[in-house]
């Protein structure tokens, strides 16, 4: 067994796709909350699914709040702002209960907060094509501030959250916005961006060098403890990680950063499939892009190379869309057997 240089924490997998594929849940235009609709309709199904990820070996469970919004809850039957807040906060409790149900008492709960575009119909977190009011950092800051206060203003709920996860951010102004929101909040957080195109830039064409500077630059208490990528094809990770590392090295050399953050890495569990936000179906766009190697082997190889370079303070690795509890269990086994 090799000696581990960098701490590794295992995240869960694709909640919405697992609920659809293994629990018979249907998400479409009539369910703008996507998987968060289970907070109203079937919290016991949500608990069962999340406990499967905990039982598979996940150290961190993300709350079912990725697409949560006041507008979404109102459209699905919530009768008041206060009731919507209670539904959102219940997701934190359910994530914690998932560890208890799986007999794992030391897991961490991460508050999942998706991009503003994740609450749009159709979803725009892969494009960054937001409405005019939310195109600026200020407009996005107000929106994210309102949502995070649902959790931070309830002391009991806030105490159950170990880390805040800003996910699938497609544009530079939104990175700036969430950092402003976290100023003085006193809770560790990470920022994960999405890279759906063929290149290594964000959907708004921002380069990784500028993204990393926005994530880590400047003074203040709002520097994330982790940065990285999610909801991205696994075949792109090596190139993306390399550019992230180059950007951080430049900041270290310039004295802008003194400590490396954690690398946060949870790519899709897809194998050539691409989600069509208009039809809301998974489609095989590029049959030649499929791999014979299983997902857990591919992501483990990537993590192994990162770990050997011994740059990041730690590695948080898991899966996004189409990643199942079985995939997470296999990755858990590989990690435990190797280190």
TrEMBL record:
GO terms of biological process kind: methylation
Cofactor(s) of this protein: Zn(2+)
Keyword set includes ATP-binding: no
Keywords assigned: Metal-binding, Methyltransferase, Transferase, Zinc
Binding site for Zn(2+): 231, 320-321
Top-level taxon: Eukaryota
One MF term in the entry's GO annotations: metal ion binding
InterPro entries reported in the protein's UniProt record: HCY_dom, HCY_dom_sf
Domain Hcy-binding: 1-335
Name this polypeptide is given: Hcy-binding domain-containing protein
Protein species of origin: Coleophoma crateriformis
